[in-house]
Write the structure tokens for this entry.
Amino acid sequence: PPDLQTLRIATTINNRGLTEAVNAYERELLCEALQSAHGNRNQAAKLLKISQRLLSYKIKKHNIVHADFCW
């Protein structure tokens, strides 16, 4: 529901600040895309509408373990 989403966003920003909130949301999106793609980076990049190179950079930036999403 929109009210719950607004509360979640407000709580996140108050607790972390904008930069940390954006980083946390970016990490969440990356993990969701990798999970949906069963660890396939090419598919995950397409889901996110970014290049594979940018996806690899962001995976490294957020210390995401790619193998955790391969099944």
Summary: Helices lie at 2-16, 18-36, 41-48, 52-61. The chain has a mean pLDDT of 86.
